[in-house]
Each structure stands twice: as structure tokens, then as C-alpha cells.
Amino acid sequence: MGRGRENSSISYYVERMLSIFLENRQLITEKGWIVSDPESPRWWGGLESYEEIIISSILVQMTRWETVAEVIENMRQRGYTNIRSLASLSEDEILSIIRKVNFSRTKAKRLRALAIEASKYPTLKEFVKYGLRDLEGIGDETYYSLLLFVGNETQFPPSEYGSRVMSRVTSMRIPKSRVRETIESNLERDLFKYKLFHSGLVTVGRTSCFKEPKCGKCILKMICKLNNNNEALRI
Ligand code: SF4
């Protein structure tokens, strides 16, 4: 493969981005993705268990993370971040605990259904792998994010941020529906690398790669084709 072609391939960009994310692990951590040991639950906003990650994935929809963290802390102190304890509560009891989050009634119903279903599996990992997919409120992004951050499966979560950042950096249009296969074909199947890469993409999406990108403060600006060539690609 010639040098020019090599430099334009997605694997080249993935490798460069991974190094940049590693160098900027402090920024990624400050933005809520606690770069940790590969199997630590702390990656997900510093939470203390896989069960808390699953519960927060329902609570966070259309709600600020700070509010979710407060509710989780309250649930933790009362023992309700244990899935089996949560499953023993009525919908109204769950509602009274999570009332601070938006759409709390819908989420109380979903959380109860999730907790009851999860209690049927011998391990949380098996629940995430086999029982989570068809539950109400679990879209593709949430499912694959939980597979990675709870199930510790090297499957890459598709996200709008991933689509936008990858498309702009490589100058190749990568829709959300192709993010997963694109990364999985170009990134070594390594749990730490998968978690870091997803965290890095979301961090860049949330801090600088807005609809109107703020490239000047972006950690990827040195390698980003849109920034370097002023290309007109807008995703
Ligand atoms: S340099 Fe600009 S376009 Fe490229 S990823 Fe960063 S913010 Fe997005």
C-alpha cells in the first residue's frame, strides 16, 4: 500500500485518534468518562457497579447527568441499586425515588420491567447479552453501550457523535448505522481500546465537534481532514 493511500485509510485515522485519546485521557476523565482499568464500572461517570450503569442508562434519557448521579446516590444509600431489591418495589415506589428525573413515570415503569427481567438471569452479563435487547427504552446505542461497559464485550456502540467525528476526521461519510462495523473492522478487539475510543469520540462530540465545529480547541484538529483542508463536509 502506498504512503498516500495508507494515510487516507480509516485504520490510519483510528490509530492516530486512539493515541490522541490516550494522551488526552485527563480531558476525557474530566468530561465524565473515567479512564480506568478495562473492566472497571467507573468508566461510566464514576459509578460504582454495573447495576448502577444499567439503571443510569434508563434515567439519563432527556435528563442532566448531575440529576441522575444524585438519584443514583440516593438509591445506593437505600440499597436499591441492587437489581433484585429494585425488582421487589412497586412502580409507584420506584417513581417516588426517581421523581427528580424527567419522564419519571415512564422511567419507573421501564426500570421495574428491566429489574424484573434482569433478576431472571444468573449474571448481569448474561442479562445484558441475552435479555436486554427487546426491553422498552433500550435503543441500539444504549444496547451496544451496555454490552461494552457492563458486558465487557468488544462490540462498538454506534452514536451520532461517532458518526459526526469519524466522518469529519476522515472526510468519508460514515452514518451512525455504519459506525459499529467501521470501528470494529479497524480497531484491535481490546476492551480498554474500545472503551477509550468510544469515550474519546463522545468527548470530542460534546466539547468541540458541534454542528458548527469549534476546531480551534479540538484535540483532533491536527489530524482532522475537515479542519486541515477546510473541506465542506458537514454531518
Ligand atoms: S477538528 Fe473540528 S471538525 Fe474535526 S473533529 Fe475536531 S471539531 Fe470536529
Automatic annotation (TrEMBL):
Q: Does the keyword Metal-binding apply?
A: yes
Ranges for domain HhH-GPD come to 59-207
Q: List the InterPro entries.
A: DNA_glycosylase (IPR011257), HhH-GPD_domain (IPR003265), HhH_base_excis_C (IPR023170)
SMART domains, from UniProt? ENDO3c
Q: Which GO terms describe its biological process?
A: base-excision repair
Task: List keywords of the entry alphabetically.
Answer: 4Fe-4S, Endonuclease, Hydrolase, Iron, Iron-sulfur, Metal-binding, Nuclease
Gene3D superfamilies the record matches: Helix-hairpin-Helix base-excision DNA repair enzymes (C-terminal), Hypothetical protein, domain 2
One of the entry's Gene Ontology molecular-function terms is:
endonuclease activity
Q: Which PANTHER family match?
A: A/G-SPECIFIC ADENINE GLYCOSYLASE/ENDONUCLEASE III, DNA REPAIR GLYCOSYLASE MJ1434-RELATED
Q: What is this protein called?
A: Endonuclease III
The organism of origin for this protein = Sulfuracidifex tepidarius
Q: What is the lineage of its organism?
A: Archaea, Thermoproteota, Thermoprotei, Sulfolobales, Sulfolobaceae
